[in-house]
């Protein structure tokens, strides 16, 4: 038995709550589910720079380049039979793109940002219910379901390729 409090007054609180960062999501998952209680895997990490209609002009070498990576990631909680996907875009400034080290660092920043946002997006659809006795129940929040959740890996990869 547990106490349940029912809210009788509805209204006024319609603001968007910011998502937790990927590191906070991992920290909470490790605390409540244990280190072996969940896993994540990257389904796809693809460079999508230049596909948004940008036109590079010859002779504008000083123009800053932007690197963009699209990531699709899956979070699985095997003990609870829950699986959730997240999709996100990460972007980083690559400067002029002439320095290979600068380009490499910008690529890594964009990839890391895309993976982090996708992980956070996947965890946003998972509800952890922590009871007083310390037990944890997990539910998939279907109200935030996205079309990418029902696609197979092959369909997902085909969906984002250009």
UniProtKB/TrEMBL annotation:
Domain DM1: 20-127
Cellular component GO terms, alphabetical: nucleolus
Superkingdom field: Eukaryota
Start and end residues of each stretch annotated as Disordered: 141-162
One BP annotation, GO: double-strand break repair
Name of the protein: RDM1 protein
Species: Sapayoa aenigma (broad-billed sapayoa)
